[in-house]
Request: fold
Amino acid sequence: MVQHLTSTSILKAWEAGVGRRPLDRGLTLLWAAGVSGDLAALPLTERDRGLLQLRAATFGRELEAQAVCPDCGEVLGLELDADALARALPEMTDEVVGVGDDEILLRPLTSRDLAAVVAVPTPDVPAALRARATGGEWFPPALVPEIDARLEAREAEGELTTQLTCTECSTVWTEVLDVVALVWAEVEATALRLVGEVAELAAAFGWAERDILELSVVRRQTYLRIARGG
Ligand SMILES: [Zn+2]
Reply:
């Protein structure tokens, strides 16, 4: 069950994730929210669903994002609904697909799979992911392109996309939402703001970081106003 992030856990998540790869940051956020179990083994869709639920519980469901037109560079503002996006993600389970005369079991990819191929040279990544998703089974070379295409299509189904039209040049494109990056950016911005508020209140009143973070938002903002002479 995804909990919301408190001020204390936002700082904890940011501190743990700031020097790490984007791949690890998504899992760090879920860990900071108290999600237990082997998080690296979650299908990527479940990771993203957890992050969107966490986002809605912490900051509310209305989510503003930006997309850049691939043609002219215009920046478009997007208004999204984190709860609706979480519900839109498909349930990914092991699936038996027919390829040629064979039936092949495809397992949904996980964060651990992506981490395992980080150091793999780009041309070899499809083979490495195929091996992980199929349990290392050997396939006749003639079947490989179709297996890879099925795997790619299946993972694409698990991506959140939105069709956009540029307001400047009318280019139409499909934007893939990077859920980890979206939620991480908000957590990082909030963490940096919190650090600034702690520094201000500690300087003004001599309070400890832990006590300041435990203040409700309303109380903290009121003390900040007082500290600023308002
Ligand atoms: Zn454009």
In short: Residues 69, 71-72, 74, 166, 168-169, 171 surround zinc ion (CB under 6 Å). The first strand starts at residue 62 and ends at 68.
